[in-house]
Amino acid sequence: MMTNATQVFHVDPVHPDPIAIAAAAQALAEGRLVAFPTETVYGLGANALDAGAVERIFIAKQRPFSDPLIVHLADVAQLTDVAINIPTVAYALAERFWPGPLTLVLRRHPNVPANVSAGRDTVAVRMPAHPVALALLRACALPIAAPSANLFSRPSPTTAQHVLDDLDGRIDIVIDAGPTPIGLESTVIDLTQTPPLLLRPGGTAVDALRAFLPDLKTPDGPLITSEKESAASPGTLLKHYSPRGQVILLAGESQAALRFLHSAVPVLNRRGLRVGLLLPDDEAREVADLQATVLTFGSLREPSAVARHLFARLRAFDSLGVDVIFARSVDEKSARVGLGMAIYDRLFRAAEGRVLSVGDDVSDMDLLNQLLAYLP
Ligand code: TXA
Ligand code: MG
Question: Looking at the CA of 342, which ligand is closest?
Fold first, then answer.
């Protein structure tokens, strides 16, 4: 493993210094690892045509070799360098949504080393919308394989500090251009299947894709697979975005959720468990009397703000040393549209599927029993 410290290049997010970009591009061309901002999250980049460099991504992240990477392009014209048998709809989608948070799974070009795609004959591609990512891609003139720049199973990084917290000393360079604007990863769709399949909800709303893909298949709730099944549909493992405390998703209407917290938190306190609460602003004002660490993520009516803060808040709980985190979620209707779908998906995974639904039809006693069954 590398022992050198990671170099940090600070650049302007809109007009990055060309000298810093050239140095990072040079490092990529020489097979080194460079973390860089995209409009979604920070990515950990390597030359996608260099199998050795790609292997170093997996090692640095401690990512299983069975989980394929996304290849980033500067330009739609580069598609034919990395993919073959490209369907017409891929060009229509690229025209409409690129640069932007949409990843297309296509047939892999033989020039792309197999380890990029964990041995499959497909390849995931996207053109990111961040000026720094685009400047870097143009400067090195190479397709760049880049997963999110976090250690495996940690929340994706939305700042350069998050990258360093996970990967300092394990990668060569991180380009720091401040926080990423969207905060959740790209939407991934598989165009090699018929009908096309949503693999991950993300920054591009699924509703907007339907105009191009009327038969797009979307799973009913979060797409969750077991360790074994995930070989067929990677990236859908349940435990995928977990902070160190145990997250429990609290679904349902505001008053009922607050009432439940007032009965549950003291129970946990008495058991010596430190409690964290991840709440919208208006609910956070109602829990000052509880013995708990409270973080807020804005208003649930503003999904883009929630998305932007979500991963940073989950990471923040790690350094606060809490044992159990109650996280409020978008309501059922919001979880089916736009960014709400991606927010619910990430919260559900962070909670490893633990959900408590509060409401008039369920007694506090039943909820407490459910909660106790979830506890560490
Ligand atoms: O927004 C994003 O997509 C960020 C930024 C850095 O671009 N990248 C990202 O990469 O989130 P990663 O590796 O954390 O997630 C890539 C997802 C995984 O769920 C992976 O399994 C899936 O895309 N994927 C990649 N290649 C695939 C393929 N050939 N077939 C099916 N799924 C694939
Ligand atoms: Mg990731």
Answer: 1
